[in-house]
Design brief:
This protein has about 425 residues and is an alpha+beta fold. It folds into 3 domains: about 5-120, 3-Layer(aba) Sandwich (Aminopeptidase); about 140-305, Aminopeptidase (3-Layer(aba) Sandwich); about 310-405, SCP2 sterol-binding domain (Nonspecific Lipid-transfer Protein, Chain A, 2-Layer Sandwich), CATH 3.30.1050. It is built from 11 helices and 21 strands. Helix 1 packs across helix 2.
Length: about 425
Amino acid sequence: MRLQLKWVGEDQRDRVGAVRALCYARGSGQIADFVQQLRGDRRSGPGDWLLAERDGVAVGTSTQYPLTMWVRGGAVACQGVAYVGTVKTSRRRIGNEPGIGTALMNETLRYARERGFVVSALMPFRGSYYDHFGYGIVERRTEWTVPLSIMPVGDFDGVRFYDDARDRGALFECRQRVAQRGQCDIERTPAAWEWELNQIGDGFLVVDRHGAESVRGWMYFEHEKTEPAGPDTIHCGFDTGYEDVATLKKFLHFLASLRDQYSFAKMQLPPARDLPLNLLLKETQMTHRTARNHPTAEMRPFTRMQVRVLDHVKLIEAMKLPADRSGKAVVSIKETEGSTSKLAIELHNGKASAAPTDASADVEIADRIWAMIVLGDLPVTRAAELGLIAVTNRTPLAVLDAFSIGPPPYCREYF
């Protein structure tokens, strides 16, 4: 029987959880855990769960989250994609049909367009797999491992444990301000807040707040010990936010005060090109020597979020771009499905307009590369240097580089 795909409702919630377990769990004993987890996770709801069935048996699933992404000061509707999986007994292709994972992704994207999402975002298990569906890598992150002995020492007055009764509203407002000022950050929905706050019992959440003033930042951390005889590490994970560097420094001072209990701190922060954390430490060097006799910081850069642009016009026209850039460019975007989107883009007084056109293209770009360019991860001039795009007229490249001016893409949500 051919594969059947259907979006299901509340009556299928437990079944979706069980199918997830058959995709991802280490053993059958975890099926109940996956079911219970989905019962408590209200970030998605009826109509957000996709099941793939063959002969009435569920063989795969995916989930979408209705989200809002901020891009250069404007908000766009974002489909978050998660839990795309095929059960362990049904992987790889059967006959001439596309694979189950491919069918799930094609339907997930079709549904996103039907519901009016401007972009679709996901956190891939392997980026090259989602390249085939037009998703481009748009986020770089840096994980720092810093000996607490070289953390800067100073005042951290106002940094205290989160108090739900006093701080909830102010924390939500801080998180929203941070999202709106960033690039490709995603608003945290009330359901996502409930999910996050239900997890903090595994560690601690601190905020920077003086009395009734606004919360200026937050940091979640856990105790980590990678080896039985290894050093104790305070792991700050990805959920750290701050409105300015002054608040970030307070968190560093707070971490320095814990050096009698921990040896290292791990932090995930924006790319080092935007935030060179080592310059705030007592030892700024990141040594080239394999044998070193003094503590130094280490960093591991990595990429995470991928995005597919579904509505080019709405995305471009939502942005607030540098007012000193003006001009026109015609871009031809090769879509994964085989079609071509050709746009005339014009920048004037900090705003961009876009419209379909039949004019000759200045630049020809694959959809996954276009996502990296339009969302600011890759300047178009660098893409041309690397041979990632075809250029027939270089003059408009300076206009398109406006998309890369500002903070780099960085998302504090995970899904």
